[in-house]
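Our platform keeps sequence and structure together, in a single record for each protein. Such a record has a labelled line for the sequence and another for the backbone structure tokens. This encoding replaces a full spatial description with a residue-level series of whole-number codes. Below, we set out a record of this kind in full and without editing:
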Amino acid sequence: MQITTTTQSVNKDAGLIIPIAQSDEKDIILDRIAAAFDLDADLLRLDFSASAKEVLNLQGKNSENGKQRLFLLGLGENPGISKMIQSARAFIHNRKKKLPLQLQLSFAYGNLADDLIRSAEALINGFCLGEYNIGRFKTDEDLVAAVETSLEVLVEAENKERVDEAVKRGQAFAEIQIEMIKLVNAPSNHKNPVDLSNWAKQAAQRYGFTAKVIEKEDMEEIGLHGVLAVNRGSEYPATFTIMEYKPEGTALKKVGLVGKGVTFDTGGLSIKPSTNMHFMKSDMGGAAAVFGTMAMAARLKLPIHLIGIVPATDNSVDALAIKPSDVISSYSGKSIEIIDTDAEGRLILADGLSYMVQNYEPEILIDLATLTGSVIRALGYVAGGLFTANESLSKQLLNAGTRTGERLWSFPIWEDYGEMIRSDVADVKNFSGKPMAGAITAAKFLEHFTHEHACWAHLDIAGVAMSDMEFSMQKSATAFGVRLLTDFLENL
């Protein structure tokens, strides 16, 4: 979709989108629209409540007495960025084949006037995301046809420069988010660890950061034993991707991000039930969040020194696969007793966290992973779990989640939970074996490999990396974490 901003007036040949929140001002805004396009204001109030994703398609008259196609787009009550994005995304996706060739977006009726810049960015982001089509492997080209509509954002001259910037940000986020959505949605036979590393290397050239890949043959010498243990049952070699972005000027902070890159998780010998196993292609949602954030930080030229690490493998069943009761080593040197081979993500994150701290010494350390079903049982598909002992870092991440709509909820990581993963035969075991506090004990396991870092947070995004979307009949990828982490970095 080609998007521009203009100070020109309404084009009678274009479809005019007017986004409206469900607020006390709604009826006043509808009166203005009715007066401008010769419509019945009373009928407008009856027919349109401005609930989220609601669309009222009308035909009015413009100032030249021509017919004007109108789309009133509901945003719901007190719409934040998330609601705006969802409403705009649904508008485009659900009408791909019915849209006029030209669209305009207007804020001229007092709609969203108090929050113009944020609203413009969110709506443009949503419109662009709405172009995504999940059916990349369909053979019927008509089902995956691209949106051919152009969009003009109507603005007053004094706001044009700021709205221009907001439009570009909305588009930039959407481009990166769609790339991440494609990665997460890709089936495992089209997405192995080497594919993830190749994406990082190509993105590094496009966006201006560096990417180095440690191949499987070098991992033994380096000591990435956690990654190698999980990879033993796989036909695809593991990779360990290290990305680095340095700003041109002085960096305000050095931040390290580690993302779980399990390209498919069978559970290993502790095999998962078959019911939802097909969703395990999404078990690299944490890696996608790190990839996307690296790209956005470089595109926005943030004054942050950012390092991203993605350990990648699948977790398969094979004669060589690790077994419950095995004891393995790790990059940190600590020994790990394997209780459950389906608790594999924390094994590769352990190596990623330890490698990050020992080689880069970041001031802030954050890992992201689709790690536990436990966090889904606690929070459903609404928020990710936040685990940190650092109150300042917790507040910053929670605030970023509120601002972006990619919400988090904080859990305790008291040492009482650490007792549950003590091992009789090794330094630590990878699973408590108890059907309780699974997300917290997973965080306590990871804490062992942070070298007592004072500013570390673990984000369990198992319930939010995939969700019910317009794009699919089943759950599909959300690109959760890209907006959250970028906002967090911008506000440091």
Q: What stands out?
A: The CA atoms of residues 194 and 239 lie 6 Å apart.
